[in-house]
Structure formats: C-alpha cells, structure tokens
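Quick one: structure tokens for this chain, please?
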Amino acid sequence: MGDNGRLKIAMLGHKTVPAIDSSRGGIEVVVEELAPRLVEMGSEVTCYNRTGCDNGGLTEYKGVKLKPVPTFKRKGLAAMTSSFFATVRATFGGYDVIHFHAEGPCFWMWIPRLFGKRCVATIHGLDFAREKWKSGIGSKYIKYGEKMAVKYAAEIIVLSKGVQEYFQKNYGRKTVFIPNGVSRPQIREAKEITERFGLKKDDYILFLGRIVPEKGLKYLVEAYKGLHTDKKLVIAGGSSDTDEFTQELKQLAGEDVIFTGFVAGRLREELYSNAYVYVLPSDLEGMPLSLLEAMSYGNCCVVSDIEECAEVVEDKAVVFQKSDVGDLKEKLQGLCDDDTAVKKYKDCAAEYICTKYSWDDVAERTLRLYRIAMG
C-alpha cells in the first residue's frame, strides 16, 4: 500500500476512460463507473488507456489517474499491444492490485505474477465466442488469456451465473459473481431525436448497442418487416470491427429502418427515454449493460431467453426464444397491439432494476475482493 495506507490499483484492458466516442463499450462503462467510486472509497486508481482513442486529452478523471500506453492501430493488434504495454507499466508501477478487464488482456498476466504482483480479472463475457474473434489468431489469443486468468489470477470476477458455471465446469475454477450496476437516469423529452430523425415519444421500437452479429439484429430486422404497425424501428450504435456486417444489415433492412450510428450524451438519453419498446435479441452476452440502462429509463423490454438476459429481467420484461424470428415477431406484434401491457412493464422496470443493480454495491464488493486477493 501507499504511505498513506491507501490501496493502489491499476486497471487495464479497456480502450480509454472516459470514452467520449465510439470507443465506449461495455468494458469502458464498467471501468468508468467503478474506478471513480473506488477513489471515493479511499483507493488510488490508475487506468491505462490506449493511445488513439478520444478521451478529451484528460490525464485525470474524477480522481482517477489516466496514463496512455503505446497502441498499434492495425486491426486485431490494438487490444493485444495496448494490453502488453499496460501490463508492463503496471507491473513496475508499485501497485497492490492489477485489475485485468476481459479475457484477451489476461494473456499477459504471467508478467506481473513473475514479479509477485497480485492480479484480479473481470471476465465480461466469453469473448472467444464472439463472431469477430471466432477464427484466426484472435480466438487463440483470447482463449489463452482465459487460461492465464485461471492459472494466475488471485480472484476472478464474472458477470453472470452462466459464465460462473462455465469456469467451474471447464477448469474447476471458483469465481466470484459481481454483476454490473446501473445509475438512475434523467428522463429526457424528445427534442434532438425529433429534429434529427423525426422520432416522437412512443412511436419507435429501439435497439441500442454495438452493431455486431451476436446481438441478433438480423432476427430483429426480419421480425420487424413482418409486423403490422406504424412504429418505426431504430437501430442505434456503432460497429466494432464489423463494418461489413453493418452494410449487410442495412441492405436487409432497406429504407424502413433508421440507423443512427454511434450515439452519446443527450441523443442517447432521449432515445432511451422515449422508446415504445426496447429490444435486445442477442445470441451471446456477458452482462448486457444496455439492457440495464434501458430498464433504468422505464422501458418495456423484449429480450432473448439466453441466461444472461433472462436472469436480469426475471418477470419484468418479455422474453422470446433465442434466434426464433417467428417468436420475436409474435411478441412484438402483441406489444404493438396492446399499449396497456407495455405500460405495465414500463411502470415496474426502473424501480426494479435500479434497486437490484447498484454501482455503489459493485464498488464495495470489488474493494473487498481486492483485500481478499492480497491475502
């Protein structure tokens, strides 16, 4: 620990904090919410950011120290190289705990362990199963990182019971379940979304997240095209090394679907605040932050029946059979035809999700785990 008795923590594996452009994904949200809270609780936290990702040129964020590390921007190498340089710097940075986020960065965990450093890993999802990493060196890199976490991490945090069972079954490794949190948001009237996209309150079905194959967006577009409704479909979000998939999806959708691109700030808040229904039709998830956010805004949500979604919503949302376009279409048509049912889900969503998932609780549990990791 530092001279003042404060726990010194390094975090790596994210792109940048704070992320103010399309670099902002689930991992970035977690680090951005967690790190400042740990500072408030008395820890010293340093986040190692990739170069080339926009964070406004900050060197400090809400008391968190921000340090850039070299990053090779070639596709497939950015995560690998930034994690390597961050690991090396963290190893010799005098930290009590080095916190690795995601499986891939754990590839380098043997380096700090060689020097007796205590490491904690958060597995945000089984990344090797994602479409963009399914083949080639990327998948092998991530899978090896998973094995390094199992071998060298003092503690492993998982975000869903399904991933917890995976590590127990495949490695006999005990993990700690600490789900993500959510903050109660400010509801916004439709202004920017009306000016830019012609959208008004309750006149659209919303997906907001990364435009990647595992999110099930093809099912959503196909189901929507069969609906009898005047509700628009809005797909909001940026791609993640998946520009080819985005173009394919746009061709499938035709002119009937509104693609907003990456959204942030007030625009993002307005989209959540004014949707008739929010849909997350994923085949694969870790802990879906976008679902927590959508429910925190009081949305009626429709989700696939994968465990990572179903265990979040319980009976407070509509669940359809994964990958089943017909079932998704049926559930959406029912909601389009019955605004009373939609209101019932909306009335309970925010209170339920904000009570069940708290970032303050996540930070407290994580800090306790750091102390356990230190022995």
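The chain has a mean pLDDT of 91.
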